[in-house]
Structures are given as C-alpha cells and as structure tokens.
C-alpha cells in the first residue's frame, strides 16, 4: 500500500506540510481492517487531530528521535506538534507500515500501550500524520469519544486471523505476546490455556499495567511454539468473574 507523498520539508524550513490523501487513507484503511478483525467499529480522522499528528511527525523526523514530551530546543518544535506527541502513538517509520508495528508492539511488553489504545472501546476520532515513506509518523488517538462497549477484546482475536498480521520482518506476536483487554473484567488472576488439535500448548501469562486503552489486560506469550496456517487454536481463560473462551483460526492470505 502506498505511503503517499509528503508536501512538507525539514529544518530549516520546518514545514509540516501534509501527507497526500492516499497515504492517510491507506493508513486509516489498515487501521480499521485490524479493528474489524477484532469486532470493533471503524474510526474516522478529524482535521485538527490530523494537523497535530502531522506537526508531530515533522518533529520526530527532524530530530531523528521519538519523544512524547519533546523539548522546546528540538528542531522544528511547535506547540501543535508537542500536543500531538503527548497524545499519539509515535513511530520512526512511515504511517502505513507503522500500523502493524503498533499492534505487534515490541519493546512495550509491560503495557502493550500502542496495541491496547488501537483496540480501545473509546477510540475515535483519530489523527494521522506522516513525513512519507522514509520519514516518521504519528497517530493521534487519546481523548476519544468512541463507545464500542465490548466486554473484552483479544489480539489475535476470535475467528479467522491472517498470518500476515501476526508479525513483520522484525518481530511477531510469538515474541511480544497475545493479549486480552477489558474495562470491566479483572484479569490479574487469570489462568490461560491454549490448545490445538486437543493438545495443550505452553504459555506464560502476566498482567499488564492499567491505563493504556483499557483498565485491565494480560499478556499471553507462546512458550516454544508458533501458530501455523490452517490450524485452530482454542483459548480458555478461567479464574475471572466471567470465563472467556474462543478459537483463533490462522490463515495464509498469500
């Protein structure tokens, strides 16, 4: 999918410009595809949030660094960009490619903050900004007014799940972990079993910090195995107020 074309420029002009319509549309399309897989409603972008995300992306690219609290000494600093940085997922990669990275979420295994916000009941509208295929990107997503109302959300979710969404060339969900998040179900004492073809598979389970897109969440790490296309994996969660059970069917979309 095209990353689009960036119309701005870095230091010294520091013009945030904008990402072309196809770049923003492709990032949003992928974003909503993953939410659809998780049985969550689509979200839309909003111009003010897009502007914050675009100014944020300019700052990240100009300084070749990532920060949710960029100092005023940064190249191309602006209040608009700083506001965007504080309320965004931020990436050193372009907008379309970064969406899957947020859902794999390497380096954030204690929170899965990027993933949980994308899969939040409250998400939307959002802002998307990027400095093109060799630049940085920001996804403004805090302060949403969505009301999806799901009792719990898993990643990978119940149902058919494409292997192409399981990982990228750097990492996969076998490395970072699967997850379940909920606003109302306390998960810290959850016991999780995963089976395939009736055979139990080893997993490690740990609670995640609250406040990142959901009040409660757990990380489920495959221990010594990877899912295979064409196989069904049955997940069962006990030790909580309302037991959870679902199947994930992995498919290769080519």
TrEMBL record:
InterPro entries in UniProt: CAP_dom (IPR014044), CAP_sf (IPR035940)
Pfam families, per database record: CAP (PF00188)
Domain SCP positions: 28-131
Gene3D superfamilies given in the database record: CAP
Annotated CDD domains: CAP_bacterial
SUPFAM superfamilies with a match to the protein in the record: PR-1-like
The protein's name in its UniProt record: SCP domain-containing protein
Record organism: Sorangium cellulosum
Lineage, broadest ranks: Bacteria, Pseudomonadati, Myxococcota, Polyangia, Polyangiales
């Amino acid at each position: 999918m095209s990353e689009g074309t960036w119309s701005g420029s870095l230091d010294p002009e520091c013009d945030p410009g904008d990402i072309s319509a196809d770049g923003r549309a492709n990032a949003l399309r992928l974003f909503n595809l993953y939410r659809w897989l998780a049985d969550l409603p689509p979200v839309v972008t909003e111009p003010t949030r897009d502007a914050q995300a675009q100014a944020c992306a300019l700052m990240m690219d100009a300084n070749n660094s990532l920060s949710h609290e960029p100092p005023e000494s940064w190249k191309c600093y602006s209040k608009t960009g700083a506001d965007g940085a504080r309320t965004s997922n931020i990436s050193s990669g372009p907008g379309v490619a970064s969406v899957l990275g947020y859902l794999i979420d390497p380096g954030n295994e204690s929170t899965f903050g990027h993933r949980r916000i994308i899969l939040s009941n409250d998400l939307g509208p959002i802002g998307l900004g990027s400095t093109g295929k060799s630049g940085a990107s920001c996804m403004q997503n805090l302060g949403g007014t969505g009301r999806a109302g799901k009792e719990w959300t898993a990643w990978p979710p119940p149902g058919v799940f494409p292997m192409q969404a399981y990982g990228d060339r750097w990492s996969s969900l076998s490395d970072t972990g699967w997850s379940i998040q909920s606003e109302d179900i306390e998960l810290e004492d959850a016991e999780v079993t995963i089976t395939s073809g009736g055979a139990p598979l080893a997993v490690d389970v740990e609670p995640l910090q609250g406040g990142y897109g959901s009040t409660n969440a757990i990380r489920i790490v495959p221990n010594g195995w990877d899912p295979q296309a064409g196989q069904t994996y049955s997940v069962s969660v006990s030790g909580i107020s309302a037991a959870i059970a679902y199947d994930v069917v992995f498919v290769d979309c080519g």
